[in-house]
Amino acid sequence: MAAAVAGGVGPVVAEAAAPGAGAETKAEVGAGAETKAEVGAETKAEVGAEAELEAEVVPPPLPGLQLVQQGAEACVFRGRFLGREAVAKLRVPKRYRHPALEERLSRRRTAQEARALLRCRRAGIPAPAVYFVDHVTNCIYLEDIAGAVAVQDHIESVQRRGGDAGSLLPLSKKLGALLARLHDEDLIHGDLTTANVLLRPPVEKLDLVLIDFGLSFVSGLAEDKGVDLYVLEKAFLSVHAGVETVFETLLKTYAATSKKSGPVIKKLDEVRLRGRKRSMVG
């Protein structure tokens, strides 16, 4: 698969390289703020529709692709695309939306995800290569990270084997440095969890890859980066027991690596305080 990682192909590359990219970046920042508001407004409706979506059988975008994961936002297929092993991520239409609105939102979010992946790879941040973007079906064809293991599964495996938190500190340092690079590029992931970070084989090399940029956007605001870290912290501590020191090490590495970490860590503390107040009020 290493040979298949060369820069993406298809219309996404043409979009990203087109003149006026600076104006496009400003538009992405605005779109990011709009996307955050939309996500908050749609959450209740999506929760209600999730059970219905899981019951549906979503057909593959191309013959021969096999469904490997079906969620509320997208379905993931695996197979071959243009002679290469690939993953196809197909956005699931929301039936509770007006069709015109659904089409506009799906196209924009598909484009945002593809651009975020390309921006990562240009900055040297490990992410899957983009092979092709189909704007008709809102499907992205990506590099298949063969043999990769989610960080979530790796941590659970270490804990099942009786490993202590100390054995996970090298991994937390690598992840902290990776997120620092991501935020220094003003990229907000939007859904940071240990399930959305992969380890290439062999896992001992701690070769990390960021995936699932479906809720990503561009922002230089410390608030947005602080919320990104807060989402990861909540997911980290709720899924993995007894790893408080692991996340603390992650944050220390982030602060030492990022050129813009000061305001971000301050905002993270503010977001934590707001979260605690909400928990107390109920």
Automatic annotation (TrEMBL):
Q: Name one Pfam family in it.
A: Kdo
Intracellular or extracellular location(s):
Nucleus
A GO CC annotation recorded here is: nucleus
Q: Which GO terms describe its biological process?
A: tRNA processing; tRNA threonylcarbamoyladenosine metabolic process
Q: Which GO terms describe its molecular function?
A: ATP binding; hydrolase activity; protein serine/threonine kinase activity
Give the Protein kinase domain ranges: 62-282
Per its database record, what is this protein's job? Component of the EKC/KEOPS complex that is required for the formation of a threonylcarbamoyl group on adenosine at position 37 (t(6)A37) in tRNAs that read codons beginning with adenine. The complex is probably involved in the transfer of the threonylcarbamoyl moiety of threonylcarbamoyl-AMP (TC-AMP) to the N6 group of A37. TP53RK has ATPase activity in the context of the EKC/KEOPS complex and likely plays a supporting role to the catalytic subunit OSGEP. Atypical protein kinase that phosphorylates 'Ser-15' of p53/TP53 protein and may therefore participate in its activation.
Subunit comment:
Component of the EKC/KEOPS complex composed of at least GON7, TP53RK, TPRKB, OSGEP and LAGE3; the whole complex dimerizes.
Protein name listed in UniProt: non-specific serine/threonine protein kinase
Q: Which organism is it from?
A: Nothoprocta perdicaria
**Gene this chain is encoded by:** TP53RK
